[in-house]
Amino acid sequence: MEIITSIVSLLSGLAIFLVGIHQMSAGLENISSQRMQKGLSKVSNNRFLSFGFGAFITAVMQSSTLVTVMTISFLNANLLSLAQGIAIVLGANIGTTLTALISSFATVEYAIYLSLFTLVGVLMEMFAKKTKTKKFAQIFVGFGLIFIGLNFASSSFQTPEMKDFISSAFQAVNFPVLLIIISILFTILVNSSTLVVGLAIILVSSQTIPLEYALYIVLGAEVGTTSTGIIASLSGNANAKRLAFIQLIFNLLGTIVFTAILWIFTDEIVGLLNNVNPNFQVALFQIFFNVSTAFIAILFVNQLEKFSKKIIKDDTTSLASMNLQFIDEKLLVTPSFALTALHKEVKRMFDLTKENLILSFQSIKSQTPINPDIVKKNEETIDFLNGAISLYLVKLSGEHLSYKDELEIGKLYHLINDLERIADHAHNFILIVEEMVEVGSKFSGAAESELNQMTDQVLLMYDLAEDIYQNDAVEKLNELSVLEYVIDKSKSDFENNHVIRLRTGECSLEHSKFFYDFTSQLERIGDHLINIGYTTINVVGDEKENEKKFVSK
């Protein structure tokens, strides 16, 4: 009966420990995500800066698994180079050792008092009003729960029956390779090398198993932890798969080498570690393993990159148009990075929409459809992107966001709708030209010249609106307003001119429908472009306010 009670105590303690790790990691992530994005933009392709960044951010976030999955997501979103991703993951192997040290402190005398951090965090959560304070409260709660969980789990080994039961179980698998395999499988099962290493620390500090058993468990956990990255990369691009492959090979080779050394020199290594407090023996071994292997591997990043490219080839098929090339569900946990990827996806919409505008304007000028199949395909892709990005924005809005990120989401939602409407107009132009060809209608030279002027004005305005959005060039908004005014005036003037041409017989009545369709829709495109430009200072675009500013000049 005592064994059952002890097992329940062990499992409960480990569960509390995992909750603590998750809470602290989530809190640290909420505070550091903006700094992560700034840091990532600075490390560039310098392997040593990327290496240090990986170590630092993992130590801060307390999760090498999360950092690895995020890095794979960044590669899949083309936010990182492969060499940069390799260096970050190698650095993460060093940063994760801090968690083992924290776990070691949880097993020392008086460590239970550190669990009071949970009480401090709860009080902060209850009485704090500022969002930032609440984020720190989450960190404190998680930090305290780590010590509560490990202390609870450690207490399960105080009964002789439990110690004998666990000790006998390990004696039955008294073979290094078997211990490593079991550790690998268990790490994959619980999806946490931190939990496995923490359990090894408890088993050694409570003198339940020999130290060498725990060291083999640590080596197995280093291999098992790569499973998360492998799974995350399966739906990714070639570089994402390469990074997961490199992490697996790197950890596997390191484990093989250290297993051989430990197997041959067991007495010497155990004797050396016995000079250290038993609570810290496992953590120090993990630190030595991760630091030594990572520092060796960082010197061969280029070779690792070339090797992975030989094993995993580039995608032979071109990227399908009806898919998302940059945004990834895994990026949702880091909103700042998700927004960076979103901006790249929106840039695709800008490019496709402009291509359709150019083709449709060429069709208007030549009065014959130019590449209508391409326009139709692009239009379908733009519609898909509008829907997919909108859905992603809805999901992202459910995450913990800063006020700045909330505004950015609102801007993007309205912006992509304006782009989609512009693309609709471009597609309509092709349909109008096709109808003109079908009925044998042709514009007069004067009408053709006026439409060409308007299309040139719209293209100029399109480039300016995109520049304002991409570069936050608010100083160019007045210039955009002037262009919209010019387009509005052109519509009015050209339609009046067309009435005169109808009276003089220069144009026929059957042309009027097509001419007015073109001028009206070109003017509407100008309205959408002014909205896009003004999303830089207003979530929904501020056309009315813009008109007031222009009129007041």
From TrEMBL:
GO CC terms: plasma membrane
GO biological process: sodium-dependent phosphate transport
Membrane topology listed for this record: Multi-pass membrane protein
Annotated InterPro entries: Na/Pi_transpt, PhoU-like_sf, PhoU_dom
Domain annotation PhoU: ranges: 346-429, 451-533
Keyword terms of this UniProt record: Cell membrane, Membrane, Transmembrane, Transmembrane helix
Main subcellular localisation: membrane
GO molecular function, one term: sodium:phosphate symporter activity
Pfam family, any one: PhoU
Record localization: Cell membrane
Domain of life per record: Bacteria
Transmembrane segments: 51-75, 82-104, 110-127, 139-157, 177-204, 243-265, 280-301
PANTHER family registered for this protein in UniProt: SODIUM-DEPENDENT PHOSPHATE TRANSPORT PROTEIN 2B, SOLUTE CARRIER FAMILY 34 SODIUM PHOSPHATE , MEMBER 2-RELATED
Name of this chain's protein: Na/Pi-cotransporter II-related protein
Protein source organism: Acholeplasma hippikon
Lineage, top ranks: Bacteria, Bacillati, Mycoplasmatota, Mollicutes, Acholeplasmatales
